[in-house]
Amino acid sequence: MKKSISTTRVIGALGATGAIAAAMLSPSAMAQSQVTIYGLIDTGVEYVTNANAAGNSVVKMPSLTGSFPSRIGFRGTEDLGGGLQAMFVLEAGMAVDTGGMGQGNRLFGRQSYVGLKNATQSVMLGRQVNMTYLSTLKSDVMGPNIHSIGNLDAYLPNARSDNSIGYLGTFSDVTVGATYSFGRDATAAGGPASTNCAGETAGDSKACRQVTGLLGYDNKAFGVNLAYDKLNGGPTALLGLNNSSYTDTRIGLHGYFMISDARIGLGVLDRKTQTATKSESDLYYLGLSYPFTVALVLDTQISRLKFKGTANSATLSVARLTYNLSKRTALYTSVGYIKNSGTSAIAVDAGGTVGTGMNQLGVMTGIRHTF
Questions:
Q1: What's CA 279's distance to the chain center, in Å?
Q2: Residue 132 in 3-state DSSP?
Q3: Statement: the pTM of the whole predicted model exceeds 0.70
Q4: For residue 176, what is the enclosing H or E element?
């Protein structure tokens, strides 16, 4: 009987190249390898009111979608023996409406990493989703919908870290994870969460470093997790983070529970930015996902973003009805309404525009296919 590999060996294997080579040459390591090509195509047509300061409406086919962002990916594993596997993921985002590439025209902008894993733990190196992204996967019932909490904080559905080392461990119902990035984001054109904070700067060990962490517990009935995310600025960074002593910090508490087949998700996210000026905001959300049948699913959510010490706030209400034609193909309609207060100008749709202080309605109907 093969013994399961220990945590020490998983982590140590990253630096112990000799041990890896020995494992790969052993008879047990000459096992099967597997590569999978997968993807998702999602697009539709949207109607939006108050798309500019004059209050004009617009009909468009947006690059961002009503359910999940489009992508194509490659993932693979190779058995190394003793329960240890090598793995990789290369995943490219794309805009179906134009055929363009996502995440600032990166080849593999969604994910690009290689690592080692066993039955309970993984260690990854490269560009990868971080713990802020993982923390809302079960509590945010809308997910990265075009009308979602990602409109109130564009970082949430785009929480990825360049140049990072990641760890994820699942022990029965407990999940522990962390990432450490030597340079959070190497471009200013990488999407709504880009920071132009490449880091890896000689003489400045704090520039663009990012740490994220997660501690969670979940089972079939309920789940809860606590997430932490801190980014240091750098000389060329956006959003006022142009000094390595400046920071952007998020702390989130997220959870869900089941009532029969219905899932109720909720959470709160506190954000503090320490730059030349300081700001703090809180984001709250509460949502319900209910399957009327296997084919017909309703998702609905209300969320609110409030900037402390100001009159600026935004409240977003959204509902989405999905009809699954098969296991891989679905039709959907998503309706969102946002109320802006003060000088807030947050659009109802991701990547959209709205007049300052204006409310906005968005309706999108589309089709999604996975392969």
A1: 23
A2: helix
A3: yes
A4: strand 174-181
